[in-house]
Structure formats: structure tokens, C-alpha cells
Specification:
The structure is a single chain. The chain has 159 residues and is mainly beta. 9% of the residues lie in helices and 45% in strands. It contains two helices and nine strands, in the order ααβββββββββ. The longest helix has 9 residues. It is globular, with a radius of gyration of 18 Å.
């Protein structure tokens, strides 16, 4: 959006930094509204720290597909190594590629409209040593995974 108040308005006015106030009356190089970057990592990409296991020893991956966003790629360099989350939507298919660093685990929330056909790699998921089904939670299937690289796939609800 490009009307007051918005980041788009700042860009239209030539902003190259984040401002302290929406109207630009104070500092024009201030982190007051800098939380937007955290939203990209935590909400869109879904990379979240588990409050019960600080420091990314256990990671919560909960991507939030929304609007007309069809793909997201993000990486966070944790003390255990890189945490990567990349997802895309093609038609009603959702694909999530993850890297969970060594010596960590993750809880992964997969958006789905058809819980019986969630895949990891080429196969429908069955509990194994590295991927374990935990529960259904709303329109998500929730899994526990060990460190490694994963490619989850699901079918989204049609609107």
C-alpha cells in the first residue's frame, strides 16, 4: 500500500531506511518498525525458535502461505548451522524444502487440505526414524523431524 501509514508511502517519498514515525517527522534512520524482517522469517518462512529449547536446539517450522505469495526462501544461521526453509505453491500443490542442522530437531507444520497424501521425498509419509507424525492441528499436519534435509509435499484446500 502507498497511502499513509505504510512502508510503501515511505518508498514513494524516497526512503532508503526505516523511519521512526509513520509521518517521517522524526529520525529517518531508525529501527522502530524493523520488525518486518522478523515477520518474513518467522511467519512467511516459518522459522521459529522453540521457547522451551532456546538457541534453536529445537526449531518450530510453521510456514504461512497467504494471499498471492507463491514462494518463499529463507535461511537463518544458528549456532548449530544453517536452518533453511523454502516453499512454493503451484496450483493446489504445496512443496516445502527444509534443512535442519546437526544435533537439533524440529516440529514441522505442513499446511494441507488432504491429510492422507502428505509426502516426504517421493513417498507418502510413514513414521520412520527421521520423520514422525505427531498430530493434526486445524488445517495442518504436524511432524517431528531429526536433523537433515527434507522435501515435504501436500495438497492445499481449494477456495
Amino acid at each position: 500500500k502507498t497511502v499513509y501509514p505504510s512502508w510503501g508511502r515511505w518508498l514513494a517519498e524516497g526512503a532508503t531506511t526505516l523511519w521512526e514515525q509513520w509521518n517521517g517527522a522524526a529520525s529517518r534512520n531508525h529501527i522502530m518498525f524493523g520488525h518486518i524482517g522478523a515477520w518474513f522469517f518467522q511467519a512467511l518462512a516459518g522459522i521459529n525458535v522453540d521457547p522451551a529449547a532456546p538457541g534453536f536446539k529445537h526449531i518450530i517450522i510453521r510456514p504461512e502461505p497467504l494471499g498471492d505469495v507463491t514462494w518463499v526462501r529463507a535461511e537463518h544461521e544458528s549456532m548449530y548451522g544453517p536452518i533453511r526453509s523454502a516453499w512454493e505453491i503451484r496450483g493446489d500443490k504445496f512443496a516445502l524444502r527444509l534443512t535442519i542442522p546437526a544435533n537439533t530437531t524440529a516440529t514441522v507444520h505442513i499446511p494441507t487440505g488432504d491429510r492422507s497424501h502428505i509426502t516426504e521425498g517421493p513417498d507418502v509419509i510413514h513414521n520412520s526414524g527421521n520423520v514422525r507424525f505427531l498430530r493434526l492441528e486445524g488445517d495442518r499436519a504436524v511432524f517431528e523431524v531429526a536433523s537433515g534435509t527434507y522435501e515435504f509435499g501436500s495438497t492445499l484446500k481449494r477456495n
